[in-house]
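Supplementary Text 2. Reproducibility record for the structural model of the 308-residue chain.

All settings were left at their defaults, and a single model was retained for analysis rather than an ensemble. We include the record here because the model underlies the residue-level annotations in Supplementary Table 4.
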Amino acid sequence: NLTYLVKIGGEEYVLRRPPFGNQVKSAHDMKREFNVLSKLSKVYRSAPKPFLYCDDENVTGSEFYLMERCKGLIIRGKSPKELEESKELQREVCESFIENLVELHALDYEKAGLGDLGKPEGYAKRQVEGWTKRYFNAKTDDHFELETVIEWLNANVPDARGAALIHNDYKFDNVMLNPNDLTEIVAVLDWEMTTIGEPLMDLGSSLAYWMSADDGAEMLSMPFNPRVLMENISRTELIEMYAEKSGRDVTNMLFYYVFGLFKLAVIAQQIYFRFAKGFTSDRRFSTFNVFVNSLGTIASKAIVKEKI
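Retained model, structure tokens:
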């Protein structure tokens, strides 16, 4: 979704609206996101508070909502010096990152009034089928390895492992930190894909963003998470942190990790589709088809090696 800073007098707000050329309206439902944050911000300290929703498209060209402006540090790629130099701080920041996700998954979503947000029964199967459909609807190029991954996912959906409120796009790029204490999370942003689903699907999505040296220098340079953290804390260590803090069974994480990579590839494909069709002229998106292919390769290798 598109995000703007709005200044009214001496006050500052954030405006959220769907992207131009949007092909998946359900994935960019501003009213749904506004309603989620209205309830979630009362029980989850990291959720921004929304103020106003408007469905009159004559105002901005689409529906939108206004929320509070949170102030803090979002680390994309290069990190502050103190984080670059301290192994201890690197681990503490990752521990805080995972603990915050565990806190979200432990929320009583029924009590928060969010019980009707999704249907946990058959969640993993629906996700695989839904993202498969989204991929083919936005397809512009042939990606053999990714399409082989699609076949594997559809044939290996595991049994359900409980339900929780999940973010679905949890990475440092969507997390705002206190610049004076990097272990403190000020806010978690971008809630458009939040739902009631399987918590390991959420963790798998986070792992998909967590690149390693084996994934190649170009992928490791993607600004999803602080590079220094990805270089020094492995995906396996993140899984261990989550298991320890949540008490959940994390066996068969391979499926959830591969699905996370696939979902990320589809998101990138949808963005590239909009660029290829002329809905955006942002040159940053011109090579996203290469990114899609790389994610397919990483996922395919993980399946072959049976290793995250």
